[in-house]
Automatic annotation (TrEMBL), chains A, B:
Belongs to the ROK (NagC/XylR) family. The chain crosses the membrane at residues 131-152. PANTHER family: BIFUNCTIONAL UDP-N-ACETYLGLUCOSAMINE 2-EPIMERASE_N-ACETYLMANNOSAMINE KINASE (PTHR18964:SF149), ROK (REPRESSOR, ORF, KINASE) FAMILY (PTHR18964). SUPFAM superfamilies: Actin-like ATPase domain. Pfam families: ROK. It comes from the Bacteria. It comes from Caldinitratiruptor microaerophilus. Keywords: Membrane, Transmembrane, Transmembrane helix. This is Glucokinase. InterPro entries: ATPase_NBD, ROK, ROK_cs.
Length: 314, 314
């Protein structure tokens, strides 16, 4: 039987899979990553994770027809080089060539948010869309655009609408700018606000709870005014971000994924209502705003799809 | 000889041209439009303008192989229907069919900003670009994206990044939302600020001058603190808007056109510097930010190019 390998390299873990030519996952592997690790140890654990997946599938990794890897950007997808990964502390790492040499199979490297978008397009909530926008709201905000079945790359392969300025005088973002969407509407932004709430009122934190997004959501639900304000601003910014993309790119599907959106359909509803209010009629009527269908696996399935494309010479 | 017809329908005038199959303009015509006019009188003057162009070229309009029309506002380019044009007061006007029937030649209708983008791509400052972003900074802010030689349409044909929210709590836009790019960085926004300056200090207005963008630029140059603040905010917003598009779409060329950009290269320099500060390195290094090359004719040349495409079955 023929099969491919897929890896999703994240800030906290490496997820790997072996999949058949029909896209079905046959085996999985996982390893941890830690912030600031150099490429050496991470590369070793990437190989371990994908070997574990092959083992779970009862297959030999060397027999895989191709492998695709999603990595945090910016990266050069054509050269397969991670240009810079602040989370991992990488710079100019020729990921594709290192892995291809070590494993003896063709390897392709792609931005992780692009692969999450592509995974949703091929196997998740984006199936059948012609112009699909993906926003992954997690620690950061990842963006991907799939146009007529292809990942939109632009000139560099890096498309970062997660860092669009939506509030010129807004809070400082991890990227050094003020008022990025990510600075208001990401898990990191909600954790920052949660810490501020807890600093003022330590009693808000329950035993075993951490000051992060779920705390803001719980307090807001319980009627805490401060948490409600934080949530309102989150919804306002994310709704504006979605509306900017609906107005500007006129997708027929917007897929919202990432850990923060897992909070539930109530959050999707609020963001959708805010986006509707801010979108132009023609563009809004032509699109659907939905939650991701693959949970935390969007990126891994995107890597499966890209590896299959490689086998098919696409 | 073979030739095509082109019309750019604007808020104040109708510009028309007859062009040869090499794209060279052989004759021109022009007629005024007035705000709030219904379709009847405007359609009549569109026909007059293009007949004038044919006459100037010494050619018969009925012999044109095709005609393309750029029109404002949300429209359906496939059906050739102007859905809504607040400036002209139009709603659901089947522009293509009306003109095709009246003139007896094939007609195509396209969003005016898309055609300005396409005109710059084919004959102006966007030539040779693979991923070209156009922003036309005039009364409003028009946006167009040309990807690998084709106008990007999305699901509806309407792509309005001129109305992206860049300032959640910003000034009210003509579209009814707050903090759109257009609400801060358009000619209309500068005129609003100019009027506010003049209301407070009527002596700022010289004889014959109107409270509009050039007044803000002149006062800022002369050291007026208030005008400098307005200009700074304009540059900040437009720089953020350009950076959002550079970060998000990774173009290899950004063309800035429209009447406001005609102020001079000093304005381009300031916007470019602000955008550079806000853009990611990988995307910034791969792009050039330039002024439009066709002045007020970008849209008209775009219509010429689209009419030629029609002749060539594209």
């Amino acid at each position: 039987m023929e099969y491919v390998a897929a890896v999703d390299l994240g800030g906290t873990k490496i997820a790997a899979a072996i999949a058949g030519l029909d896209g079905r996952v046959l085996g999985r592997g996982v390893r941890p990553t830690a912030a600031g690790e150099g490429p050496g140890p991470v590369l070793g654990r990437m190989v371990e994770a994908v070997q574990e997946a092959a083992h779970a599938a009862g297959l030999d990794l060397g027999g895989a027809r191709a492998m695709a890897v999603g990595a945090p950007g910016p990266l050069d997808p054509e050269a397969g080089v991670v240009l810079e990964s602040p989370n991992l502390g990488w710079r100019d790492v020729p990921l594709r060539d290192i892995l291809a040499e070590r494993l003896g199979i063709p390897v392709r490297v792609e931005n992780d948010a692009n692969l999450a978008a592509y995974g949703e397009y091929r196997y998740g909530a984006g199936q059948g869309a012609r112009y699909m926008v993906y926003l992954g709201i997690g620690t950061g905000i990842g963006f991907g655009l799939v146009v007529l079945g292809r990942i939109y790359h632009g000139a560099t392969g890096n498309t970062e609408f997660g860092h669009m300025t939506v509030d010129l005088d807004g809070p400082l973002c991890g990227c050094g700018r003020h008022g990025c969407l990510e600075a208001i509407a990401s898990g990191t932004a909600l954790a920052r606000e949660a810490r501020a709430i807890v600093a003022r009122r330590p009693d808000r934190l329950q035993p075993g709870e951490t000051p992060a997004a779920p705390l803001v959501f719980r307090l807001a639900r319980e009627g805490d005014g401060e948490a409600q304000q934080v949530l309102d601003r989150f919804v306002e910014a994310l709704g504006a971000g979605v509306a900017n993309l609906v107005n500007g790119l006129s997708p027929d599907r917007v897929v919202l994924g990432g850990g923060v959106m897992a909070a539930g359909d109530w959050l999707l509803e609020r963001v959708r209502e805010e986006a509707r209010r801010r979108a132009f009629g023609a563009q809004w009527r032509a699109t659907e705003v939905v939650r991701a269908g693959l949970g935390g696996d969007s990126g891994l399935y995107g890597a499966v799809a890209l590896a299959l494309d490689t086998v098919q010479g696409r």
